[in-house]
User: Fold these one by one.
Assistant:
Number 1:
Amino acid sequence: MTTTTGDRILNFSAGPATLPEPVLRQAQTDLWNIDGSGIGICEHSHRGPVFDTVLQETVEDCRKVGNIPDEFEILFLQGGASLQFAMLAMNFIGDGQTANYLDTGVWTTKAIKEAKKIGNVHVAFDGSTCNYDHCPQDNEIDAIDGASYMHYCSNNTIYGTRFANAPTSNAPMICDMSSDIFSRAINWKNHDMVYAGAQKNLGPSGTVLVVIKKTLLDACPSGLPSTLDYSAIAAKGSRLNTPPTFGIYLMGQVFKWILAEGGLREMELRNERKAGMIYHALDSNSDFYTTFARECCRSRMNIAFKTRSPELDASFLEESAKLGMSGLKGHRDLGGLRSSIYNAFPEDGCARFAEFLESFAATH
Ligand SMILES: Cc1ncc(COP(=O)(O)O)c(C=O)c1O
């Protein structure tokens, strides 16, 4: 079920973002008293039996949802996706080594900046030369041989671009999937580590999902602070210190919701339909709206566009707000407008938004 009922409005925020309604309802109950324990989820010890079950089920359901092979470890971390920018470089750029990075937008630029503080970085694709309007095909990537890894971002939240297919690399592949994790199937043969901040498709901000190949854990150097060392965290099953218990619980509920809805196949079909309605409304009024991404790389999660002028963009925001639509302002780096429609964003909300796009163009 993806409807918006009662006193809630359509939230197009890029993140933190809309969560599934059944998940929020369950969380309301479990915050007070989970599993008849007489204690709320946030009040349970992270080493007690109730949280043991939550963690175990969250890991198992995550594996089921993502079809994650056994050779990958599933970890829950904190510090947001941005901490991963530094942490993965600390763990995997060895002495004198270089990592390949694909720069496809604001978040990858930040990942590169952080990694450069730790080691050598080679920018194998520089999207700034085309205003980040697309993600590269393999023949546009100029990677160096013998790199410690290649890093890319599957979906660029701000520019609204995505890799239709993952790039390929001889080096281990690490992907920031913060804004499209579990919106479609993941090819695990192509990836050695995937990470995602929770606040778009998974749960509350601050919590991070890391799926990492066990063999990559062997490359973690000794001597790192243990809270920044993937192998130390994996050795303790994500409980090296107090983990983000509520974040893990809520992710677990989101995984149960995805499974109940029909899994990633259903999410992907739904996301295609949802984005399709909006792109269709934009494309059929192409004299009025300009979309940002090249067609080959259009995101199904974040749709960045603008009207004919900043003044009209402002009226668009005002008029949509009156209809109970919020979070449509474009990111400050790009301006214009953006609708973010992650897994939990209701399909009927996309239909209503597409109608609004049509009527706004007609009346202005
Ligand atoms: C693709 C991507 N990567 C990284 C981040 C940073 O996430 P966090 O704020 O959790 O550090 C974001 C934030 O929106 C994002 O969209």
Number 2:
Amino acid sequence: MKTVKVDTSSPYDILIGRGLIKNAGPLVKNVSDAEKITVITDTNVEKYYAESVVSSLKNSGFDTSLFVYEAGEKSKNLGTIEKMYSHMADFRMSRKDIVVALGGGVCGDMAGFAAASYMRGIDFIQIPTSLLAQVDSSVGGKTGVDIAQGKNLVGAFHQPVLVIIDPDTLSTLPDYYINDGMAEVIKYGCIKDSALFKILEEKNALEIIDDVIESCVSIKRDVVNRDEKESGERMLLNFGHTLGHSLEKIYNFEGLSHGQAVAIGMVMITEASEKAGLTEKGTLEKIISLCKKYNLPVSDNADVDEIINYCASDKKAGGGNVNLVLLRKIGDSFIRKTPLDELNGFLG
Ligand SMILES: NC(=O)c1ccc[n+]([C@@H]2O[C@H](COP(=O)([O-])OP(=O)(O)OC[C@H]3O[C@@H](n4cnc5c(N)ncnc54)[C@H](O)[C@@H]3O)[C@@H](O)[C@H]2O)c1
């Protein structure tokens, strides 16, 4: 088992190891003296993993209940959160009890937000089961839900007390979501780790996924340790995301997955910054090849003006500027505050 230690305002461990979820009970017992646990999961993950996690928790003496929501981003709303609150209140959860998020990024974001707000905040544990959640969303404490006006517009920073990553769970994850998570993996190589990028080029990431996950969460840990609330360096994690989010909105979050949109966003922004002389020549080509290797798209026909319009409405754009994350070269990134009215010239 590998352990990555996070040193945020409330420190916690990220445990990575095959078969770990079968030992969820003893692992949770090490960090909590709760009496009751609500395990939150979705209709897909329930089929494969709920029983073993719940029985391990029960065997360790926890009074455990299960809350299951319909799988998918459409469930990530305040209606589902309200049902979670009711379930936890009916189960008579107290302030020292805990929530376990067993699932992908949607599950972690919602269960984390429910934990952040139920009784003004109780502990929660992440057991991420999608690649995206294992390399990215389960670490760092961003929780929340979507509202009609935008994705992730309501939420809270709430760090988990433990993250348990079992790479064996990826065996049941559909390829579509494996590719999706690989976009975030490539992102980490681009922004912080040229050695990781090289490994992704030379090997099949899925054959060495435990090491890849460790590299990714270690990068995220380092960034979040230095900038927990995203006032500076943490923005680097948004490489490819500003344009990617715009593309997702143009397609109304259907037809183009988050990872696919991020891949196109990384390519578009690097094409522009290489043209502007801000990025080492040849970087674009490397990113395109790597995205293609992992079955990710590298271009889209969406109109640049439309993309820019959506950038302007992004919750992270402020004061007429957008913080673009650019690469000097692979493994070396920086933030460039760019006026929205210069974005067309930059991308065009
Ligand atoms: N909090 C953060 O820092 C952060 C970062 C990035 C993304 N996110 C959020 O994460 C969400 C996307 O995450 P996601 O793609 O994991 O979504 P998800 O939770 O919907 O999971 C994707 C799909 O995979 C299924 N699934 C998950 N694990 C499985 C497994 N082991 N076997 C079989 N099926 C499995 C789910 O049921 C779902 O259908 C978005 O809502 C995004 O906003 C949050």
